[in-house]
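Entry type: protein chain
Record version: 2
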Amino acid sequence: MKVLLVNGSPHRDGCTNRALAEIASALRQEGIDSQTFWIGTGPVRGCIACGACRKLGRCAFDDDKANELASRMHEADGIVIGSPVYYAGPSGALCALLDRVFFSGGDFTGKPAAAVTSSRRPATPLPSTASTSISPSTRCRW
């Protein structure tokens, strides 16, 4: 079994990657292989609803990582999507890629999947209703 861990952060070795590394470690302890796919910092096109993907079986735009991500997601037995939270939502580049992956024939019905987010900076106080405890060793530097 192989699980694809998608790092949707522009920071290759940032907080999202750390969370995915923890998941990879837990999977490894269970004898499950994993592979991390970083979306990078390059430009990402949004879907323009041209419909060409329905004929091609892939996105017509081949100048970013959407088709590579789709291929790896199809090959994987499970998927974990990781993203930082920017202004109450996931990374825009990740959303654009996933929109195109799903619209261009990405039928992942029945495939196990999960999501992990990174959303707190060390200098930001937790709300008084939160019961989360974060140790200094797990805090990110930014």
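Comment: The first helix runs from residue 15 to 29.
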